[in-house]
Design a protein that fits this description.
Distance between the termini: 14 Å
Strand order of the largest sheet: 1-2
Order of helices and strands: HHEHHEH
Helix content: 55-70%
Shape: elongated
Number of strands: 2
Length: 132
């Protein structure tokens, strides 16, 4: 069993787990934006996992995706909430949240989160199949 744990069988699951965490964090940021749509001086918050993933994969210097995922630094995939364009606002109250954009981003992020969790489920199903 220890040989199985030392393989790269969980590489994709680990990356998908980080993506799910980032998507959940982004969902919270978008919900916070929606809650503060009428708060003067509030600035939109966001989370960008895609750029972190792209940068982390570039650091691996491997040709095939399996090798890249196996060698990606999980530390590089940790993301946090940031203020999106803090100096910009199109409103008089200096708030830069657009409710229509936030609702569309929320829907897109929920679809992305569902896709990620389906990917995790599929990876575990593959492991179950191999174990049997």
């Amino acid at each position: 069993m220890s040989t199985f744990l030392n393989t790269n069988a969980f590489d994709y699951i680990n990356v998908l787990d980080k993506a799910a965490d980032a998507s959940w964090l982004r969902n919270e940021a978008i919900a916070n934006n929606i809650a503060n749509v009428d708060t003067p001086y509030y600035k939109r918050q966001d989370v960008n996992f895609e750029d972190a993933m792209s940068q982390a994969l570039k650091w691996t210097h491997f040709a095939d995706l399996d090798s890249q995922v196996h060698n990606v630094s999980m530390r590089r995939l940790s993301v946090s909430t940031y203020t999106d364009i803090p100096s910009w606002s199109y409103r008089v109250d200096d708030n830069n949240v657009d409710i229509d954009t936030e609702n569309a981003e929320l829907a897109a992020n929920q679809i992305k989160y569902n896709g990620i969790t389906n990917g995790i489920r599929a990876e575990f199903q593959n492991l179950r199949t191999v174990i049997k």
